[in-house]
């Protein structure tokens, strides 16, 4: 008809009246109004007359007539024409925090939105932005209030919260920085951090946790969430630079303490006779130069045909590293193997070169030391002993898993894309359990003196516990698996299961291992 001006309206009406369902409805209505109704029609009329069906239709009509458009709060009547343009924002608060932090501007004294947490309620609303000036909360002026007082008002508010804000100057569009994953190399509890601007906005994590960094806009406080956590709201964590600066303030005292401990340990060791195969030739065994904060990581799964990851066992003397290695070798000699060490001592009767040791001259050994060919080396009874990088490569090239136990300070030299080491820390149980389980056990004085062994002493137990504690404190951020060797069979089964997962499942590894 002429009065239907819009083409869209005409299309809509045409489509509606052309619907089969409309014809059916009209036909049904005509049939119901007819005098000669069939049994089916009479049954339908009876059903539609039942009270609960009438109630359902009544409810439907009531709901259908209602308007569900959002009701905006009325604009205040007392806005001064000279006042800055304001936004009236209404958010419905549930149990989750709003996800924004505020600060007092040092110059103007205004309350400013300092940070919007990614994925939080404020962020999802898209209504509040960094730099907005907060004027009122639920009609309460905030100009003369401290940020802590405002936070208290917000925490006590239930249901809808109304904000009156002066929009800040729009910043450039948020940087499209790629989200990165990092492995935390330290424990963090925001409740104990005096430096964090808002403890409630902080994210607690433990050493070894994987964090997804959502924003690095702030040089001091990053926004991150725990990988795999269903909570979409990011939390504050100290940035890498900020954490390094804090940690460096403590490093001097840690070095002094480490030196004192080492001096004490070595003085005690001097009283023993040949307790270890050799002492490592380095100025400071427990290196404290590196400040562990975060390490950027990526998910890695070994592909079929790739070389196996190097398996490194770390632990104090006497904890059972050799026993675990031996059980692995016996369990599958075609799959697991160990390196053959080098030595400068003379070959003995019935020994074969390349079987017990690689026998080389002292001069050649010293040349290889200079050329950094050894993972670790030392001197024992006037002869050199050492484990070479090439001996590890030799095992891996045969498509076998190379089992290696080393001093923990060597780990940073092994953590390369070539070896991709999976580091297992084997720690002793409590000293009470050591006394119970190691009564009849013996500790071998040196690898080259298989017949020279002594029963464990109380001093050995104390040394084992203290060394394990020191290793975990100093190098724990490099350990991917920790096994307590209380019962050898249980520890072995736990280790073997972990190594199976390394070969079949994805693990987080440093980004540099996959990008080189």
Topology at a glance:
Elements: H1 7-17, H2 20-33, H3 39-48, H4 51-65, E1 87-93, E2 100-104, E3 111-116, H5 121-125, E4 133-137, E5 140-141, H6 147-156, E6 159-166, E7 180-184, E8 210-215, E9 221-226, E10 235-238, H7 240-270, E11 279-280, E12 294-300, E13 311-314, H8 321-331, E14 336-338, E15 342-343, E16 358-359, H9 362-370, E17 374-380, E18 383-388, H10 389-397, E19 401-405, H11 411-414, E20 422-427, H12 431-437, E21 442-446, E22 449-455, H13 458-475, E23 481-484, H14 488-504, E24 507-510, H15 512-515
Under the CATH scheme, the architecture of the largest domain is 3-Layer(aba) Sandwich
The geometry reads as elongated
Assigned CATH superfamily of the largest domain: P-loop containing nucleotide triphosphate hydrolases
CATH third-level topology of the largest domain? Rossmann fold
Give the CA-CA distance, first to last residue.
73 Å
The helix content, as a percent range, equals 25-40%
Count every beta strand, where a strand is a DSSP E run of 2 or more residues.
24
Overall mean pLDDT: 81
**Which parts are unreliable, with pLDDT below 50 for 5 consecutive residues or more?**
269-289
Give the total of domains. Answer: 4
CATH top level label of the largest domain: Alpha Beta
Protein name: MAGUK p55 subfamily member 7
Family: Belongs to the MAGUK family.
Main location: other
GO cellular component, one term: adherens junction
């Amino acid at each position: 008809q002429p009065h239907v001006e819009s083409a869209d309206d005409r299309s809509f009406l045409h489509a509606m009246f052309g619907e089969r369902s409309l014809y059916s409805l009209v036909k049904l209505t005509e049939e119901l109004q007819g005098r000669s109704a069939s049994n089916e029609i009479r049954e339908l009329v009876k059903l539609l007359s039942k009270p609960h069906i009438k109630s359902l239709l009544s409810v439907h009509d009531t709901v259908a007539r209602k308007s569900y458009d959002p009701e905006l709060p009325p604009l205040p009547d007392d806005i001064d024409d000279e006042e800055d343009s304001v936004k009236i924002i209404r958010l419905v608060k549930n149990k989750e925090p709003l996800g924004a932090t505020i600060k007092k501007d040092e110059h103007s004294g205004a309350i400013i939105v300092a940070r919007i947490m990614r994925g939080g309620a404020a962020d999802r609303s898209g209504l509040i932005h960094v730099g907005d000036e907060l004027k009122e909360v639920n009609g309460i002026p905030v100009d003369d209030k401290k940020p802590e007082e405002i936070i208290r008002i917000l925490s006590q508010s239930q249901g809808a919260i109304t904000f009156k804000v002066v929009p800040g100057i729009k910043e450039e569009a948020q940087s499209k920085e790629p989200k990165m994953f990092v492995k935390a190399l330290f424990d963090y509890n925001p409740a104990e951090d005096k430096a964090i601007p808002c403890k409630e906005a902080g994210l607690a994590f433990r050493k070894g946790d994987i964090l997804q960094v959502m924003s690095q806009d702030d040089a001091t406080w990053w926004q991150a969430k725990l990988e795999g956590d269903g909570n979409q709201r990011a939390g504050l964590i100290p940035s890498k630079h900020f954490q390094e600066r804090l940690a460096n303030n403590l490093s001097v005292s840690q070095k002094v303490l480490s030196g004192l401990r080492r001096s004490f340990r070595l003085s005690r060791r001097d009283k023993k006779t040949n307790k270890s195969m050799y002492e490592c030739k380095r100025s400071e065994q427990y290196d404290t130069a590196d400040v562990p904060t975060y390490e950027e990581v990526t998910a890695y799964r070994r592909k079929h045909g790739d070389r196996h990851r190097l398996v490194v066992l770390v632990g104090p003397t006497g904890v059972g590293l050799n026993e675990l290695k031996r059980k692995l070798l016996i369990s599958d000699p075609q799959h697991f193997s160990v390196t053959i060490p080098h030595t400068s001592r003379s070959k003995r009767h019935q020994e074969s070169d390349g079987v017990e040791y690689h026998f080389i001259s002292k001069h050649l050994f010293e040349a290889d030391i200079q050329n950094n060919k050894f993972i670790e080396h030392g001197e024992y009874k006037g002869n050199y002993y050492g484990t070479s990088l090439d001996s590890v490569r030799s095992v891996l090239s045969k498509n076998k898993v190379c089992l290696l136990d080393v001093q923990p300070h060597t780990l940073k030299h092994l953590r390369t894309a070539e070896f991709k080491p999976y580091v297992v820390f084997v720690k002793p149980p409590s000293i009470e359990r050591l006394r119970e389980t190691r009564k009849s056990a013996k500790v071998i004085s040196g690898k080259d003196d298989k017949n020279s062994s002594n029963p464990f002493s109380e001093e050995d137990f104390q040394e084992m516990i203290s060394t394990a504690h020191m290793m975990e404190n100093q190098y724990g951020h490099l350990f991917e698996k920790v096994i307590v060797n209380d019962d050898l069979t249980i520890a072995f089964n736990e280790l073997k299961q972990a190594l199976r997962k390394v070969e079949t499942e994805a693990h987080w590894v440093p980004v540099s291992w996959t990008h080189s």
